[in-house]
Structure formats: structure tokens, C-alpha cells
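Hi Y.,

Following your request, here is the sequence exactly as I used it, all 128 residues.
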Amino acid sequence: MLNKIKFLLAIGYTIVLTILSLISVSGIPEFGTDYDDKIYHLFAYFILTSVWYFAIGETINKRQILYLTLSCIGFGIIIEAIQGKLTVNRAGDFFDIVANLVGVFFSHNLYFNETTEPKLNMCKPLHF
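Below is the corresponding structure, written out as C-alpha cells. Let me know if you'd prefer a different format.
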């Protein structure tokens, strides 16, 4: 049951991110930098990748890590292409793709080391 909930959470976040990426969003808090949008992209794709790692859980292997990482990267590129071609009030931006990549890689590096074993196991409950 828990695996189904984690999977639905990952799908839900992906859907919400897709919608927010394709509509005009206003009223978002600002950090006061020229790179606020890039910071939001970095965090959004960090969370996207983390949620999917969490959904897959402890059964993840090297191939799944590769597919998951490439899927998150591909998703970000596709969303930027759609913004550039199909939306009126959004524009695709190369540096948004770079921010997405950084977010994916930060998440990957947080959870996996060079042997691809989980660094943080979010799937096992804590026992005191």
C-alpha cells in the first residue's frame, strides 16, 4: 500500500509541475535576484527527481537510476520546448533547461554515491 501511495505522489507532483509549467503563474514570492526563475526551476526538478527516487524505493538498480535521471532530464527539455512552441504567455529558455539539469543532478548526488547505493534511505522507518 505504501508503494502505491509513493507512486501516486510522484505522478501527482509530475502532473502539478506540468500544469504549473504551462500556465501563467503570478504572485510567486521573489528572492530579489535576477535568477529567481532559475532557482524555482532548480528546486522543482530537485523535488521531481527526489519524489521519483522515493517512489521507486530501495529496489532501485543502476539501470533504473539511469532511466529515472534521463526521464527527468527529458521531461524538463520537453516542457521547455512545449513552452516555446505551444504556449502564448510562456517562453522556452535554454538556461531553464540548465537549471532543471542542476536540480536533477543535485537530487541524484544527494541520494546516490558512485557505487549507486542509496546514501539516504527514505524508505525504511526510523526505529528508536
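Helices lie at 2-22, 36-56, 62-86, 94-111.

Thanks again,
Q.
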